[in-house]
Request: fold
Amino acid sequence: MFYRSHFTQNSKYPRLLLFFTMIASGWLNHLDAQIAQSQKNDKNQIEVSTTEFQLIIQPISLYQNSEIDILEFTYFPTSNKNKWHHSYTVPSEKRNELLKNKVPEIILQNGGNTPETKRYTIGKYIVEVIPNPFNVCIREIDLKNSTISPDNQYANSAVILRDKVNLPWVNEDHKINKNFELQESFFIGLGEKTGSTNRKGNAYTMWNSDVPAYGLEQDPLYVSIPFYIGGTENLNYGIYVDHSSKSYFNFGAACDYSSISVEDDHLRYYVIFGNAISEISTKYRRLTGHTPLPPKWSLGFHQSRWSYKSQEEVLSLADEFKKKNMPVDAIHLDIHYMDACKVFTFNQQQFPNPKSMVEKLKAQGINIITILDPGIKVEKDYPAYENALKQDLFLKYPNGKIYEAGVWPGLCNFPDFTNSKTRQWWGESVKFYTDLGISGLWNDMNEPAAWGKDVPTYIRFDREGHLSNLTQNRNIYGMQMARATREGAEKLLNKRVFTLTRAGFAGIQKYAAVWTGDNVASDDHMMLSFKMLANLSLCGVDFVGADVGGFMNPATPELFTRWMSIAAFTPFYRAHKMIDMPTSEPWCYGDINTEINRYYMQLRYRLMPYIYSSMQQNETPVLKSMAYFMNLSSANYEHAFSEKFESQFVLGNGILVAPVKSTEKSKEVFLPQLPTSKSWYSIYSDEKFASNKTYFVNAGMVQLPVFVQAGTILPEIVPQKIENTQSKTDTMNLHIYYNTDGFYEGYLYEDDGVSLKNKDIPQGTIRISGNAIHQEITFQIEKSNGFEFSFKTIQFVVHGISENQLNNIDDNPKPHIFEVNKQTFVANTAKVLETKIPHFAIKQDLYKIERVTKTTQPIYKFCIGMPTETFTLKIK
Ligand code: GLC
Reply:
């Protein structure tokens, strides 16, 4: 059983001797005695075989361009070829689809430093393999500087990733260790992790854990995403380890190599190629799935606490938002809405008529979101319990006894979400909420959390028919709960629903938004949160947020307000508070703070067209850390990991936010060099800053440092009253930030905000581009039949040019009416408003912080053009 028939000429031992040696001493100690070979098979794969393990190297193209984007490595025990359990992130259907894309042929070349070395070229990559023990080196050929001769190409190639040999790669604790030589100067990724953005010199564990008030360096937390990017200034690669077992990542912590270790005897990982961080993260999304466009309302402000305890309290909370003139789209109901914390129930005393409560709120544009925990109370006649018991859906010990543990309701059983029957049952049970008009569901405690913490490792999971234990399935549990919730509710409602989860795994973006769990009301936690969010976004999870104000402990007014202002620029925007804490709504921190909170909440809603459009463009991270841009210039590279700038982030493509601690009044910021422009503008003053430099800027409580990249076209709406995402206006402002380099980029997407499958539904887009030669900005409008834009007039607000230059804009001053698919738009002539204050400026009287209504920017009103026709705006 230890044997395969592959024998090489250089085999050191006769078969029989090897066989007895291995039997006698145990296979783990005898890997170096393996007999092995490497060859290309007829499926255009490289197959490396030893007596114990087999490795298949599979080139993959993600697009239909016949180039190679990924090398997939699959190790499995030779004795059990079919030992591969279900992948929830890259399911076999998805993988099979990808394998249909053409890839370059694997060509065996002459050469190699040792007689056993086999060298293959695959497109612009060279793969060298020494089979005994597994030793692989991936090199990239510098095609520009090499001829077609293989020797010349080899001479002009650089190592991307090389196995570190002479280390055990199988051991009893972690089962499989993959070790790599350490040439990288940085490692970024791994999703929801604490600590510095550059992971070099640190080690991490993937093991979803319930960690209230987690430490600033604590690991692991709730979510596991085994994807990282390693590289130097010039070379990058990504690795996604497609294995949900408990795993360990070491990036040179107390050793001179990096390693991946999984607690299993088989392993698959994908090495993802790309020139820049952006390219690798886009390819990772292609592989593991994109964040679907959420319902528009869920991008508004969410108010939560543990817990709003009655129907009256919830309704008067909604009234309070109106009285305080603060926008809100969602109110969360934490565990007290339930009867004794039992999921799929409402507490009849405190919430006698949830349906009418939900309806009343909906009429005001406010959505209710209810929490769902996986633990089902063990209680006779409790329908959820009886039902799941009858259908045999709970997790069990190997002897068949159902696993029990204490959570909020008391002793609970836990649905096995790795069983499709369970997911179906749960998804159907969600009807309890959808029947009440609820389309927001918050999945909590799904690590799963249980009092006493340690779920025994030998608890059995179905894993789609591949029975396995907690070690393999803990990391996937929360994602499968979120999947069951999302798929169930979407099927019931046939529209987009909002799902939120605490635990997750790679690919969780397809099923739920993620919040970063039970953080703490401290400046350090706040600053950490933005790093974590950008890092999650790098790893494909765009709909992310942290509990604003900090969950544990009371926040100071300054901290709460700072957090509210910064988080206004993060995708999921929710204030949440621990039980038994002082009230913590945005008006609870004094008059001035209330004013500032209102300003930033409203600013978020004004920029909602930008945020919604950014979420719709899901090929790149919505939140980008400075590290994302590091390959673009050496100054970026130098500053990407500086502690001073690590919390900075770019929302979408054009807005840079520099978070500031609540105790600080000024801030050093770094403005990175992006490909399309060389400068940034302060959003408040329009002051222009050259990129690639650091600056000290004022950062008083009122003005969070926010910058807009030159060339950005920022859509904004200013409804008379901003109550929620349904508040509309006839005019769409497009803010044009003058770019000396002539490049402009803008994108606006609209649809009805709730329909599923955004490709087929009525929708409209406006794409705006600029060209460097004539400083012309071109607008293209497209809309599908039947779609009505929410506005009738577009108003251009030009930032950063003098009136003198503006006068030349006015090429076509005549008012006229355009028609686009039967929707007419009023055309207005150009107009310059003359005041002294920039558009986004904040007027700061002691007790009055207001948006300034008149602006000094030249305002140019124009109609929307036709789908077939584009029109241009000229700037001298
Ligand atoms: C967990 C959640 C927290 C919630 C609490 C009560 O601690 O992380 O957000 O408020 O449980 O349900």
Q: What stands out?
A: The pocket of alpha-D-glucopyranose is lined by residues 212, 306, 334-335, 371, 444, 502, 517-518, 576 (CB under 6 Å).
